């Protein structure tokens, strides 16, 4: 999630120079799909914000894709949000196509991040990915905290996850992983994630998370004394003391560096993660790209109308709230300079 009213060029350039790519959600603090009332949250003001996020992120070469939703469906009771997610994907794709034809702006892949709901994974995935490519997702990401401490492919349940998603025929990314029951985390699942058995289904993953926060999942922490002097509250002092304690704890921190922005603590978690990630560089993957392309084409030809979904017939994909006639007219006359 980004603030589409601010400039992000400097940050994105630094990430690009470091070889880092970015996924971001189109949702904002004030506009997102409300799982409790998804159809009410599908409104023109929300779509306008989504379009603006797309405009901002499409200009950066290291934007890898956009997410139409993040863990919107987290149980059987809110599956009815699926048609709304698909409507957002449809609108984003049509808008990007118009923008591309008008001024050559990049067309970004659109995806969705699922919550940890194994029994609903394939249903929601099928609904969002099958059928007309103009309204289907291009990739799927999922948050999975399954590999807890010493484990393996079978005990962790990775084998069942791979089997369940085997026929997806679109890029799947593990958007969050790294249970912190064992400290420091060893990240042995990283080697498994990039192994031939799993990489036939998953296109890598993202260890959670980079910066240390209150949940204790950070790989590194930046301490700047000035930020606590500006707001010398009791809570801020507590956070400062805890940050200093972590930095001085050799069981937690592997290395300390002094930077222009403050003292950077590199945790053992990061060292272990990097070591396991580096070890995957020489893994030989036997890709079967031609088979995946045929499977992807087959999914595009699936007629979703012939399948019964759990939320039907009461909930259908809503008609667009975008005035496309107005937008197309503006594109034809002077380029896409106005949103809705």
Commentary on this structure:
This protein has 340 residues and is of the alpha/beta class. It is built from 13 helices and 9 strands. The chain has a 6-stranded parallel sheet. It has a 3-stranded antiparallel sheet with strand order 7-9-8. Helix 3 (44-58) crosses helix 4. Residues 336-340 have low confidence and may be disordered.
* Distance between the amino and carboxyl termini: 22 Å
Q: What is the β-strand count?
A: 9
Order of helices and strands: HEHHEHEHEHEHHEEHHEEHHH
Query: What is the CA-based Rg, rounded?
Result: 22 Å
Question: What structural class results from the helix and strand content?
Answer: alpha/beta
Membrane topology: Lipid-anchor; GPI-anchor
EC number: 2.4.1.-
Subcellular location: Cell membrane
Keywords: Glycoprotein, GPI-anchor, Lipoprotein, Membrane, Signal, Transferase
Task: Supply database-style keywords.
340 residues; alpha/beta; 13 helices; disordered C terminus
